[in-house]
Amino acid sequence: xxxxxxxxxxxxxxxxxxxxxxxxxxxxxxxxxxxxxxxxxxxxxxxxxxxxxxxxxxxxxxxxxxxxxxxxxxxxxxxxxxxxxxxxxxxxxxxxxxxxxxxxxxxxxxxxxxxxxxxxxxxxxxxxxxxxxxxxxxxxxxxxxxxxxxxxxxxxxxxxxxxxxxxxxxxxxxxxxxxxxxxxxxxxxxxxxxxxxxxxxxxxxxxxxxxxxxxxxxxxxxxxxxxxxxxxxxxxxxxxxxxxxxxxxxxxxxxxxxxxxxxxxxxxxxxxxxxxxxxxxxxxxxxxxxxxxxxxxxxxxxxxxxxxxxxxxxxxxxxxxxxxxxxxxxxxxxxxxxxxxxxxxxxxxxxxxxxxxxxxxxxxxxxxxxxxxxxxxxxxxxxxxxxxxxxxxxxxxxxxxxxxxxxxxxxxxxxxxxxxxxxxxxxxxxxxxxxxxxxxxxxxxxxxxxxxxxxxxxxxxxxxxxxxxxxxxxxxxxxxxxxx
Length: 484
Hints:
Layout: H1 2-18, E1 33-38, E2 47-48, E3 54-55, H2 57-69, E4 72-77, H3 80-88, E5 94-95, H4 103-106, E6 109-111, E7 116-125, E8 141-145, H5 149-161, E9 164-168, H6 171-179, E10 185-189, H7 190-198, E11 203-205, E12 210-215, E13 218-220, H8 225-240, H9 243-252, H10 272-312, H11 317-332, H12 335-350, H13 356-382, H14 385-393, H15 398-428, H16 440-451, H17 454-483
Helix pairs in contact: 2-8, 10-11, 10-13, 10-15, 10-16, 10-17, 11-13, 12-13, 13-15, 14-15, 15-17, 16-17
């Protein structure tokens, strides 16, 4: 039994170390390989198609440049703000995400030659007839996307127009909040806003482009000079032979914003059934990733929590203090903060990269394990003290008495709590999308970026979670009846 358990733990540890999708083909092994992060919720510059392919101006440019400059890359989708921090922490080699080149950003990043010029527009709900110019925004709440040029532009106007700024991590949520009336307008890059409207988003642009800026490919300052040089050389080559113009025009058109060619989806094909049919593979893949994270996380968290519980009832005060401290710290720390600390904070401190899957599992182990340790410790303490006294009086050493008498009874009492924690862990995996894990929630975000049908997609995602949780609840009820 012990050998089997040891082998199982080793297998799980191997999965964690390797992560998801970490291997490279033999053909690519001799070429430089980079990890490049992007925000795939930013069409027409980056989005993901129904088949899972990454498309958009940035994606096509990167693909063409990598072929010409003979390097390979792993694309890591995450929110823009998380992507920037990932590059700063050394978890990714570069970022391409419609990133505006600014003096402030130049202090932390080295940028490529500018590859696209844009400007910021303001858009409001098409039902809002009162907002028609910048002057109409005085004293109003407006929406921006965290860390973007649009956010900087709004901030520069905040004092003059008495703006109340509300920040979001992705464009779709920002648009939705404006359309329901929580904010009166959104600040967004013009081609992105125009694309959203062309895809059926019920908004209208009320200003001309302002604060025109340029987009650049970025690496951490002082790092990856070779990659930056390759990008610049490849970009110049694409411009020289006309390939660059073909890529841009395929998304934006020659004379106007024409998004029908290479568009992510048709605004007329967004029924519930059509969305489900188009994205069933992506949704099932996201669900499977969620289940993988949940199972690996809860198994290892249970082992860790059991150790904490045993230490918590130890006769040695020092060991009890260690258990109490670890439970207090990791149960009290928000999982989002913990995930960022492990994935971004630790690499900044140590200089060692941590795969996103590994960081996600470690987050689950520390957080969920603290809760498990707490209730298992309570289960041990709930066993009548006379049980231990009786076992010791029969000559059993403390360790054997714990294994044979206390632990079986204590664990039996906590089985319902274990299953409940399994359900909580399943839901908590959604938080890990912030570090680039494409589980079920992140899959929904990517689909919404493509079709901008937030209500319909989130309803489907919620339904999938409820189905799985209902099945787990039935299992919980069955197990409880069997152990009584």
